[in-house]
Amino acid sequence: MGLDDPVVLDLTGVTDKAALMDRCADALALPDRFGRNWDALADCLADLPRPVVLVVTGWRGYAEARPGEWRTAREVFAAAADESPARLSVLLSLGGIFGGSS
Asked: What pLDDT was estimated at residue 4?
């Protein structure tokens, strides 16, 4: 899996943690047992069934609305990517639309 077939996590319109967790669950097809909290997200990212390149788009509104939550989200994504770089890469899109599958 590479940049030619990334998973896009579109955060456009997300303004709180609950919506972020819902978008993560949908984009990454997380299991029903996903508890929609930071620890559960970290656990699910560590247990992804296949390597994933995750491109986060539309994140600026969330970062502005909830800077503390956004900082925590970045830390969770970074820790998961650092722990298993062959299984997860997380990229923040700085531009507009990013093409790819979800």
From this structure: 62
| pLDDT score of 16 more than 90 | yes
Rounded CA separation 54/12 (Å):
15
Name which of 25, 10, 26 is nearest 97 in CA terms: 10
Q: In what order do the strands lie in the sheet with 7-10?
A: 7-10, 52-57, 88-92
SS3 61: helix
Instruction: State the Cα–Cα distance between residues 7 and 53, nearest whole angstrom.
Output: 6
pLDDT, tens digit, for every residue of 69-102?
999 999 999 999 999 999 999 999 987 555 544 4
d(CA 84, CA 26): 21
For residue 96, what pLDDT is reported? 58
> Tell me, what amino acid is at 55?
V
Nearest-CA neighbor of 93 among 57, 41, 45, 42? 57
Q: Compute the distance between CA of residue 15 and CA of residue 18 in angstroms, rounded to an integer.
A: 9
